[in-house]
Amino acid sequence: MIDDIVKQLHPLPVASKLIIFGGGFTGQHVANACRALGNNALCSRRQKNSKGADFIFDSKNELSKAILDDATHVLSCIPPSIEGKDPLLQQVKSQLLNAKNLEWVGYLSTTGVYGDSQGAWVDESTTPKPKQDRSIRRLSCEKQWLETGLPVQILRLPGIYGPGRSAFENLLIRESKMIDKPGQVFSRIHIDDIAGAVLFLINLASQGNRPIIVNVADDLPSNNIEVLTFAANLAGKTLPKIEPFESAAKSMSPIALSFWQENRRVNNRLLCKKLGYNLIHPDFRFGIKDCFEQLKMN
Fold first, then answer.
1. N or C: which end of the chain has fewer CB within 10 A?
2. Tens of pLDDT, residues 107-159
3. What pLDDT is recorded for position 60?
4. SS3 state of residue 9
5. What is the Cα–Cα distance from 89 to 140, expressed in whole angstroms?
6. What does the buried/exposed string (b/e) look like for 121-138 if buried means 16 or more CB atoms within 10 Å of the residue's CB?
7. What mean pLDDT is predicted for residues 252-268?
8. pLDDT at position 26, please?
């Protein structure tokens, strides 16, 4: 919850203005947390009538120069184009380079850039070896951002979940599958901790501490059976039968199958141990409980 973020974080430096490009699930949550701390945040959407649209950003229209006036921090949540180009840099790179007050630029990437480690731990020192096209495109965009010379920080995220996008929704519509693939785990991060980490890292950067790449993941990579079982027990729902991966794979979409083709554990030691961020939801059990509590309130 936003209250949990506010409890453990300090407001951004005085007169901060955070501009968020990409006002979807993650971008809106970061914006709301920033505002709850008493700071100014503006969030883009593609259409004027979209929820939370403070300004419009798309590939067809020029960005108003006023949007970046006095901007101190910029966060990009926008995915790469199919060609592996960064849409934001393609359109407003010159404006960003000319922004006089810009202190920090965050780019939300993916831990998919590490590729398949066969279940071994990966950290920020691990050489990226992406195999999936979407991860190759992300790594390309990371490089494009770093080459600008802007004060860029890359945040690599694993599977994102939170209220409205959790195991409960799949259980309610009976689309969950208990897939058994021995040794397979997934790393995750709750939406609260993405927002919390972004704001924490902005404050840390203002003190001169800005690691170029930071993994934002929880403490406990786990398999989908553990997560679904925990969620079902909380909600009093019946679980589907366990299905071997070899059987389930036959009916998977190519995108779903691609997630099961990689197996890695994402290390968060830099963020949590060295930099000092305290996870609001240290593992899926804390996060799933939060999702369930908010599901009951709605």
1. C
2. 999 999 999 999 999 999 999 999 999 999 999 999 999 999 999 999 999 99
3. 76
4. coil
5. 12
6. ebebebebebebebbbbb
7. 94
8. 97
| pLDDT for the residue numbered 79 | 96
What's the pLDDT score for residue 101? Answer: 94
Q: What is the DSSP string of 233-286?
A: HHHTPPPPPEEEHHHHGGG--HHHHHHHT---EE--HIIIIIS----SS-SHHH
The contacts of residue 259 (CB under 8 Å, 6+ apart) are: 186
* Residue closest to 267 by CA, chosen among 101, 52, 114, 49: 114
- Could you tell me if 184 and 133 are in contact, meaning their C-beta atoms sit under 8 angstroms apart? no
Q: Which residue has the tokens 């785990």?
A: 185
Is the pTM value of this prediction over 0.70?
yes
Residues in the chain: 298
Q: Assess whether pLDDT exceeds 80 at residue 172.
A: no
What element of type H or E holds 137? helix 133-146
In this prediction, residue 297 carries a pLDDT of 54
Cross-strand partners of 188: 159
What pLDDT is stored for residue 169 in this prediction?
Answer: 82
The separation between CA 203 and the C-alpha centre of its own chain, rounded to angstroms, equals: 18
Tokens at 239, concatenated: 């679980």
- Tracing tokens 């259409």 back to the chain, one arrives at 47
C-alpha to C-alpha distance for 178 and 2, rounded to whole angstroms: 31
Residue 220, both tokens: 């406990």
Rg (CA), the chain: 19
Phi, psi of 214 (to 5 degrees): -135, 125
Nearest-angstrom CA–CA distance, 57 and 64: 9
Gap between the Cα atoms of 79 and 135, Å rounded: 10
Q: Is 36 helix (H, G, I), strand (E, B) or coil?
A: helix
**HSE-up of 162 (CA within 13 Å, CB side)?**
18
Q: Which CATH class is domain 2-297?
A: alpha beta
